[in-house]
Amino acid sequence: MDLEKINIGALIKYHRQLRNMTQSELCQGICSVTHLSKFENYNKEVNQETIMLLLERLGISLDSIQRASKSIAADLSHLLDAVLSYDKKRATECYHRVEEQREYITFSNYIARYHLYLYRYFLLVNDIESAEKEQEIIRQIANSLAAQERELSEYLNAIFFMFKGEYKTSLDILLKVEANDLLPSSWKAELYYFIAFNFGNLKDNSSCVAYGLKALEEYSRTFNYLRILHTQFLLGIAYTDLGLYDNAEEQYSYIFKNMNLINADELISAMYNNYALLLEKTGKIEDAFKYYLLSMEHAKTDYEYLLSLCSYTELLITQGKKEEALRNITKILRETKASTMKKQQLIFRYYQYSLKGQKEKAMNYLEEEVLPYLDKFFYIEDYNKFALSLASYYAAIDTDKALYYYKKIAER
């Protein structure tokens, strides 16, 4: 029998208890209760005939167990490949195939791998509740994990923190994982990508580019075209923030050329939004407005739509289009109130006070609410931008406070 990866004793015990059978009821005429007890609890070796008789009494097919034993590793491998390829449709198909064998996996040597891969799958499909459940299961079995499995669980926790917007915490863990160098090679490209992603969100754009290029090299080796586009997109944003506009334009040109060749629909709204930002920074204001509107038009979620609306509204503000900006701000504040978009809620409340001519109220709100939040969550670029506004405000009325904020900006 090819059952070395399945704990048949534990499987038999599970099905016996599921059927409310005693050990003596199950083993009557087959083997002794003592023999069955040792087999169930310690997987003590018994002959094939005894196993077949016990399974027959339980109504379990030996063939199904043998098939499961042979296919579990392959099915888990296919799930991982789909997840790392960012192929959500194929990953979901693989997940369902794996779940069909959940019962057998529970009694196999693959149990840790199963929960780790499910954890990553649920993060891929943004099922945070299920991801949290897998996270708790892994925590409970942590003492039984091999060194590489423990490292993988740390890596997945870092991704979880990243999904919650805790980029600094996520980055610290990922850099430790990189230094430990225990992750399987198949995970390296994604590791570099997420390090770059965190650096980008923390506005360390030089580091974002360095790791983005490493990720791009790894993804290119495996011809992972969708993730190549994701990485090009990340690089486009970083190059824009660094003022390397020609480099950014090159990345977006690649994306525009290739995104229709693969299933990259989910990129369209974000890509238009960030391309509009590049156009804005290069002075092509009317084109920037057009692409922000395209981004909203192609948004597939309320979150994507609101991000684009926020970008569009900030451009309206810089262009002095006050009335339209205020109308948008009313919608932004209403729609972000019950969402996770705390940063946008705070910033646009400040903009609202400012555009309505409530200067003192706006500055007090900026100082007491906006800046502490931006500082706490390491939104460095946003912090510096609004700290500069506050320093300029205080320059004429409180020199010490103005110097304090100029110093804070210089320290970053």
UniProtKB/TrEMBL annotation:
Domain HTH cro/C1-type: 12-65
Residue runs in coiled coils: 131-158
Keywords carried by this UniProt record: Coiled coil
InterPro entries the UniProt entry points to: Cro/C1-type_HTH (IPR001387), Lambda_DNA-bd_dom_sf (IPR010982), TPR-like_helical_dom_sf (IPR011990)
Classification via SUPFAM superfamilies: lambda repressor-like DNA-binding domains, TPR-like
Name of the protein: Helix-turn-helix domain-containing protein
Organism: Siminovitchia sediminis
